[in-house]
Amino acid sequence: MADVTQPPYPQHPPGGGYPPQPYPAGPPGYGMPPKPPSGGTAIAAGVLAVLGGLWSLYLLIDTIVLLARGEAPLPVWNYSMVVVLAAEVGLLLGGGIMLFVKKSAGRIMVAIGSGLVLLSYVAGIVVGALGVADAGGTITGVQFGGAIAGLLILGAPPIATLVLALVPPTKRYLNQPPRPMGHPQPRW
Fold first, then answer.
1. Cα end-to-end span (Å), the chain
2. Taking residues 34-53, what's their average pLDDT?
3. Which of 22, 51, 88, 172 has the fewest CB atoms in 10 Å of its CB?
4. Long-range contacts (CB closer than 8 Å, 24 or more residues apart) made by 22-25
């Protein structure tokens, strides 16, 4: 048998085997557009803010009714709470609605309103404790623990609203440029 040798296989050129392209690859960032922020945190903050604003509105009406009937146990406290509750209603309802229509100021309004709600809850506990002490009573550990537990339970929604309003995804969603509506119409 004769020694039959096959010709050598062709070798690939250096550089990956493909010849250089005769045209540029394109500008950086060319291709699929980035995915826009979803807005889940902003919408959740808006929903919680509107619900908190409605709760503050209920408390405002209840406080006004107590003052009108003369049944308010601490009238000075209740008059000051009318002002605070009115501010909470305005900030939370207005800010929540502004979040729904993608206005950045709504984020700040919701954060301030949520902080005001938390401060009013803490002030309510302090005033209640002072009222008990002025009446000659003492606050037991169980009552203090109950007040703290109540603060944590009642404070969970405004804390969640505050956090959702301030997280970076909410800011990105509110600051993204508006997308054009529909398809561009041809010019005839």
1. 80
2. 90
3. 22
4. none
